[in-house]
Structure formats: structure tokens, C-alpha cells
Give the backbone structure.
Amino acid sequence: MSANTAVVERYRNSFLKEVEANVEEGQWVKMCMQCGVCSGSCPLGPAWDHPPQEIFMMIRAGKRDEVLTSSSMWMCTSCYNCIVRCPRELPITHIMHGLANYAHRLGIAPKNQPTRKFAKLFWDNLSKKGRVNELKLGIALYFMNGLVSGIKTALKMAPLGINMVKTKRMSPMEYFGGHGIKDTKGLHAILKKAREIEAAKMQKF
Amino acid sequence: MAEIVATNQTILVVGGGISGMTAALEAAECGKQVILVEKNPTVGGRVSQLYRYFPKLCHPTCGMEINLKRLRANKNVRLMTMTEVTGVSGDAGNYSVSLKINPRFVNENCTTCGACGEAVDVQFDDEHNYGLGQRKGAYLPHAMAYPQRYVIDPRIIGTADADKAKSACPVNAIDLNMKGESAKLTVGAIIWATGWRPFDANKIQPYGYDRIANVITSVEFERLADPHGPTGGKILRPSDNKEAKNIAFIQCAGSRDRNYLKHCSRICCMASLKQSTYVREKFGDEGKASIYYIDIRAIDRIDDFHQMVKNDPNVTFVKSKVARIDEDKSTGNPVLHGVNTEGYQRYANPHDLVVLAVGMEPSVPVGDFPIKVTVNEHGFIEQDESNGAIFAAGCSSDALDVNRAVQSATASALRAIQVVNRAAGMEG
């Protein structure tokens, strides 16, 4: 690629089309009329780098890297305030999750974003046996921010855990294997197939 | 009551606002027989509740005066106030219409001396001022009311106040035994000019119209600015009657929103631009207006007006749909929250008063028409062959400003004239 085409490449404006094709609910982005009511309604709005309506404008302006590497859409807590107030009924919450998922799939989502870390832990836990292993998930969360803070949290929570074992709300045996669905192989086959179908649908831009 | 003469060459106009009056007069001045029915005690409709028109900023009373003069001068129009259409059947050229005529309890002897109004004690919310003030149980709807004749509110009938009014009348104009009547007419064509109503601002929950005293609607603001209004033309805010010098206007309050009204109501941008000039008129350099908008739709030639307001340093434009309003309890000031999309700044702006530029919706809800008519998805009547000789004029056909409503009324008069001409055998 010559220096010239590299520059052109940077300014090509196919990002909106890419979002429409590859992001869940992405086809709605062009419907935004930039009124700003979503950004104003977001309870976490001040904490975002780019509130939703700014993200929609950035998508249309072709700012691919800024959008996909941003931590903004990972900040969404699914309160649905924006969906309720959007005058054009854009499913903003779902678009935020769609963008986050797409960035993750491309491997350019911010690595240490806590929501992303949690989502990954949860999904790995769930998809292994078809059921959430709460004990393993809980312990994994304790150690999400490193060994020291993990041990501290574990010690702090120990009395609660012991009480839960005593009242049979939790079994320590879950840590070794744990329960699952009958046909884990079948589940893994389904997930593999789903991934193949999704990958085949992904369009190149 | 004199007999109503109507034939299949008569045009019925339903609604006596600016559109209905125009349609009736245009047809009558072409020599057609017209019956103009109006539900309220006076003609004039919502135009008579405005302080000024855009873009010339003249007073609607002026245009009203001309129309009333035409109405008085024309023998072809039969005006029936306090009359509602209860049923319509038939086809183009031959409609049968049922009317319900409500009693006014005041006959044509009335000289509007006002003695009955003084004698009566009980007061009701004043409809002419959108409930911002009170009026007596015997009243003249407003100074420009036509017919110039008092009305006795039916709620005082049978009370001591009714008798006080009757005994106070020096010309024996009050007839407390007046009864409601019904009538049946045959007409050739019907012009539907029932107009619009302001969108119910209570439905816009985040704006707190129902719970914050100093959040009002644009139609109420017109009344505050009008010298004949409840405050005598002073812009006083409802919570403490202090002068409101720093006023926010919120555009698209209910319009262009799939949760409320899908359509653009078309007049509200110009109405708020116009109302920003009221603030400057009343308070001079101390008056400040802020207009919160998605985009300003000052249609075609009246964009000059938009530019004029934009050049005013005391008028601020904020490109943002306000997310919510809450109230500063210590001052009573509404505080607007949102994001300015030009620069993405988050704001929390206090104002003395907030005016919601509410949208227009048709005053007759879909399904309430006495005969089947084709309406669009917003409830406005479509120009459609299946409507036979029922033609919409003004805001029952679309969200229109006064200028366009009058054009629409003239068009509908021409359509109705063609139908009654055919009925008379004057055309092929």
C-alpha cells in the first residue's frame, strides 16, 4: 500500500456500512437525529468518554478506531432510560452492547475494562457446562483485580460462604467439576456451529 | 328559534375558527348558502387566544375584525353557536346531519352591559385563558366574542346565582328555561374545520408539566403575554407571580417523537421564535430567552424571522432535546438537564419559567367522527375520494399555521362549491 492509499484508507467512510452489516441492531444508527436526549438521560452519562449520540455521530464520521477501542459502550448498565426517551425509538442499549461485542470479537476492545472482563468470565463459566457455576464465578471475581485483593476479598467473604454451606445454599464440592447439563458435548457443538454461522455472516470492509 | 333552511345546495361548515370562518365566508361570498356551526359560544377559535401572529407580529384581533365584518355583512351565512354535530349520514350532494343545540340562557336582547356577570358570585376556570384565570358563571367569553352576547354557564342553572343574574338583567335577556334542542338538516357538502388542540403536556413525563408550577405550555404563554389575558399582559410566572425574565423554550414538546406525536407540528419553531420577541418587548435588555431545539424549522420565507431572532444577543439557541426538568425548591426555578450536542457539554440550566412548545393534534380523535372519513396515521383528514363531499379545512387536514390554514380553507370552499353546483345542475 502506498503512502497515498494508506491516507485514503484512513479517511474512507465505510464504517457506518460496517456497523450496519456486522453490529447487532447496527442498522438503526443512521436513524439518529442527534437530539441528544439519550446522552442527557443516561445516569452514567458524565462517566462516558462518548455518550450514545456522540458515538452515533462518530460512526457516521467514520471514526472506526476511536469508537471500537473506546470504553464508552462498555459503560452501559442497561437501564433503558435512553430507549424509553428516544424520539425515534432507537434500541440504544442494544446497539451499545452490539458495538461492545463487535469490538471484543475484533480483539480491539479495551483489555482491562471491568465490564468486559466480567462478561468474559461469565461467558467462559457458563459455556463450559451449560450452567453457571456460582462458586467458581464468585471466586474468579474475587481474583479479577489480582492475587492480593483476591485473598483479601475471599477472607472478608468467608463467613458468608460458611453460612451458605451450613444452610445448604452452596456446596463446596461445586469447585471440583460442578453440575452441568446432560449433553455438554451437544452444547459445545451448538455454540461452535453458531460461531461458524456468525463468522460467515461477517462482512469485510 | 327560527327554522333552519337547508337544502342539498347548502354547505355545512363544522367549526368556527379561522379556517371554518374563512371557508364559510368564501363560499357565501360566491353566493352559496352556508350554515356555520360552532361548539363554543363564540367564533374565533384558537386564533382569538393568540397575542400576536408571526411573522408580522400584528394582533389577531385585526384579522378577526375583518372576518367578523364579512360575517355580519353576509346574508348567505347562517351562524349557529353552541351547536354540535351529532350524526352525519348520506352521500355527496345529499347528507343528512343531526345537530345538538345547547342553551345559552341568554337571548338576542342582550346588550353586553355586564350586569349579570357582576351579580353572579361563582367562578369557573376560564377556558379562553386555558384555565390560567377564572371567569364568572355569567360571562362574555372574551372582548372580541361574536355574537356579542353573554352566556350563562349551565353549572349555575338551578342555583341562587342564576336567579341573581336574571334579576340583574335590565333588558330581560336571560331565559333560565331555555332548553337544548336538536335539529336535522339536509346539506350538499360538508367542510370539516374542527381544528386542533394542544398536545397534552402531562404525557411528557420527564418535563414535569404536571408537577412543576413554572413549566407551562406555549398556548398558556400566549395568554400571559396578551393584555386581555389573566395577568393583563405581564409575564408573571405561576408559582409566585414574579416577573419571568429568563425564559426557556423547549421545542418538539410532544412532536417528532414516536412516543407522543410522530409528526412535526410545523408551527412551534416559529411560535417560540415569536414568543422570544414577547420577552424582549416586555423586559427590554433584561429579558432573556433560550431556545432548546433539535433543528429549527422556520419554513421557507419566514426564515427571515428566524435570522432576525438569531441576531438578538439576548436570545440563546441550544441544540439539544432537553432530557428532563426538575425544580429548585428554594427558588421555584425549573432546572433543565441535557447535553448540548454542539460541543457535547452537559448542562443544568436554571430558568425563571419554561415554555413547552407543545405540538398540534387534531381536536377530533380518530373514531369520533360522526361519519367514516379517511384519516392519516396522525389523525388528520386526508384528501380522499372515499370521503365523498366531506372536505377538511385548516388544522383538521394537517398541522398548519394561520396563513396555510386559510389557504386550505379557501381550497375546501372551492371543492364544496363544485359539489353543490353539481347538485343544482349547474355543471355537466
